[in-house]
């Protein structure tokens, strides 16, 4: 079960993935702080307004920006993959809080896992699809 009770506070959790990034998100009733790997969210995401907007989009859509503190453990990949993984984990946690949130989040596309990953390199090729220059003779 993903709903934990600690000192009379209910903790809701969700897992998000994108490329090789994994984010474990915990939502705790609070004031709207974002903590990623023990650091403030703004400094971890290098003060990028795009990464901050992407990772907190589900909360903003539901109008719950200042209702919950977000604690995230994330690993793998780069900042883009991690921000999108946080977004998916956050959306899944919000669905556990109230099943009616699912309709809004689904229509915005926050509950769809982006399955695009790097294609593997094939033998005889320089990259996944780039072939050496063809020589006729």
From TrEMBL:
<keyword id="KW-0689">Ribosomal protein</keyword>
<dbReference type="GO" id="GO:0015935">
    <property type="term" value="C:small ribosomal subunit"/>
</dbReference>
<dbReference type="GO" id="GO:0009507">
    <property type="term" value="C:chloroplast"/>
</dbReference>
<keyword id="KW-0150">Chloroplast</keyword>
<dbReference type="GO" id="GO:0003735">
    <property type="term" value="F:structural constituent of ribosome"/>
</dbReference>
<dbReference type="InterPro" id="IPR020568">
    <property type="entry name" value="Ribosomal_Su5_D2-typ_SF"/>
</dbReference>
<dbReference type="GO" id="GO:0006412">
    <property type="term" value="P:translation"/>
</dbReference>
<protein>
    <recommendedName>
        <fullName>Small ribosomal subunit protein uS9c</fullName>
    </recommendedName>
</protein>
<dbReference type="InterPro" id="IPR023035">
    <property type="entry name" value="Ribosomal_uS9_bac/plastid"/>
</dbReference>
<keyword id="KW-0687">Ribonucleoprotein</keyword>
<comment type="similarity">
    <text>Belongs to the universal ribosomal protein uS9 family.</text>
</comment>
<keyword id="KW-0934">Plastid</keyword>
<dbReference type="InterPro" id="IPR020574">
    <property type="entry name" value="Ribosomal_uS9_CS"/>
</dbReference>
<dbReference type="Pfam" id="PF00380">
    <property type="entry name" value="Ribosomal_S9"/>
</dbReference>
<dbReference type="InterPro" id="IPR014721">
    <property type="entry name" value="Ribsml_uS5_D2-typ_fold_subgr"/>
</dbReference>
<dbReference type="GO" id="GO:0003723">
    <property type="term" value="F:RNA binding"/>
</dbReference>
<dbReference type="InterPro" id="IPR000754">
    <property type="entry name" value="Ribosomal_uS9"/>
</dbReference>
């Amino acid at each position: 079960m993903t709903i934990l009770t600690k000192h009379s506070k209910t903790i809701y959790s969700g897992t998000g993935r994108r490329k090789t990034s994994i984010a474990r998100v915990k939502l705790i009733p609070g004031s709207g702080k974002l903590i990623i790997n023990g650091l403030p969210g703004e400094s971890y995401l290098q003060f990028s307004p795009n990464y901050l907007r992407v990772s907190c989009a589900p909360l903003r859509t539901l109008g719950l920006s200042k209702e919950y503190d977000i604690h995230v453990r994330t690993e793998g990949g780069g900042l883009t993959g991690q921000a999108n993984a946080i977004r998916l984990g956050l959306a899944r946690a919000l669905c556990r809080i109230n099943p009616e949130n699912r309709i809004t989040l689904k229509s915005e596309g926050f509950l769809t896992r982006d399955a695009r990953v790097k294609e593997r390199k094939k033998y005889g090729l320089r990259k996944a699809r780039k072939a050496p220059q063809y020589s006729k003779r």
